[in-house]
Amino acid sequence: MSANPQSSGHSSLRQSAIRYGFLVLLLVMVVYFSSAADGFFSPQSAVFIFQSVAITGILALGVTATLVVGGFDLSIGSVATTSLMASAYVMVVLGGDALTATVVCILIGVVVGLINGFLIVYMRVPDLLATLGMMFLLLGLQRIPTEGRSIATGMSLPDGSVADGTFSAAFLALGRHRFDFILPNLVPVSVVILIVLAIVIWFFLEYTRFGRMMYAVGSNERAAQLAGAPVKAYKIAAYVISGVFASIGGILLAARLGRGDIASGNNLLLDSVAAALIGFAVLGAAKPNAFGTAIGALFVGILLQGLTMMNAPYYTQDFVKGAVLVVALVFTFALSQRSRT
After folding, report:
1. Spatial CA neighbour of 273 closest among 71, 125, 11
2. What backbone torsions phi and psi does residue 102 show, to the nearest 5 degrees?
3. Alpha-carbon distances of 338 from 13, 330, 333, rounded to whole Å
4. Helices (H), the chain
5. How far apart are CA 71 and CA 218, in angstroms?
6. Beta-bridge partners for 175
7. Which one-letter DSSP state was computed for residue 314?
């Protein structure tokens, strides 16, 4: 018997909605904000979006690595702010240079990732609880050296001395320099770093044996173990990647601000998690993936910039982000499940 043409048409329409619906939503949002908010469609607005997308996107790529192995990392925001504070402390308080500050921050990410992985893999602590505990630990730890104060040149230290160090010009360039790719001073360095990291993690996950094994671990850990895969090593590696990426995000944020602002990373966790989960809906992937995460970060950046330029109250932004995330997850899971039945 031939298939019902009407049923076939509905199935095709549903598949198109799953695959392209979120990209259409992104385009509609850009068109709406361009018409409703004066100055949204401008180079200056694009720079603000790019800067916010870069840091959010880098952290979200780290979250994606943990999602691939069936885990989740709630500590990324606190790792980023700890990295921010550590870089400021090294240069402003200790008088260190940009390279030393950068190496210290990366080492923080590696150590936190190893501890998270050890707790989850060997101590059998659920990933949400382990990374939540790490989040609170780091939130307290980063405040101890300065007794809860932000770090800036000229500040008084707990021992009575004055911090007379400064951020080096090379370090600040990571967050403030812009390239002249299309229009003058349009593309920040941080965006180039995001693009490079996104390409690297995308290629690693999609086209290398290690990346495919990480997907296998997340899909069926027991089967991957029976196939001889070093499951524990892959899971720990995913948390190390997440920690390092969060540290890179903290470095870029410190370079942009030029000070160790204790409260600057408050929204990093929510925005990064939203970007990573929205990535499930991009092109109907229904799985964690680097390309979708990058698009998710762009979506979050455009959404927040548009709401800000329309003078929307700050307390409505999390509500709107949550609503968009729910819609994205519906596209990902509810519609895709119906298409399989």
Report:
1. 71
2. -65, -45
3. 12, 11, 9
4. 5-36, 43-68, 76-88, 98-121, 127-141, 169-176, 189-207, 209-219, 221-226, 231-257, 268-278, 290-309, 317-329, 335-340
5. 8
6. none
7. G
Q: What is the pTM assigned to this prediction?
A: 0.91
Instruction: Take residue 58 and report the two structure tokens written for it.
Output: 């880098």
Collapsing DSSP to helix, strand or coil, 160 comes out as coil
Would you say 91 and 168 are in contact if contact means Cβ atoms under 8 Å apart?
Answer: yes
* SS3 category, 151: strand
Separation of alpha carbons 88 and 91, rounded Å: 5
Give the amino acid at 237: A
Please state, in angstroms and rounded to a whole number, the distance separating the CA atoms of residues 143 and 281: 38
- Both structure tokens of 175: 């967050």
Q: Which residue has the tokens 């495919």?
A: 212
**Domain range annotation of the chain:** 41-152+162-266
Q: Are 72 and 127 in contact (CB under 8 A)?
A: yes
CA 175, distance to chain mean position in Å, is 16
Asked if residues 275 and 56 have their Cβ atoms less than 8 Å apart, the reply is: yes
The dihedral region occupied by 124, where left means phi > 0, alpha psi between -120 and 50, and beta the remainder, is left
Calculate the alpha carbon distances from 167 to 56, 80, 172, 255, 258 in Å: 23, 18, 7, 8, 7
CB 231 within 8 A of CB 113: no
Give the CA-trace dihedral at 102, 104, 106, 109, to 10 degrees. -140
CB 75 within 8 A of CB 239: no
The string of pLDDT tens digits covering residues 117-169 is 999 999 999 999 999 999 999 999 988 888 888 899 888 888 888 888 999 99
Give yes or no for a contact between 305 and 40, defined as CB atoms under 8 angstroms apart.
yes
* 279-309 pLDDT, tens digit each: 887 876 778 999 999 999 998 899 888 888 8
Round to whole Å and give the CA distance between 56 and 274: 9
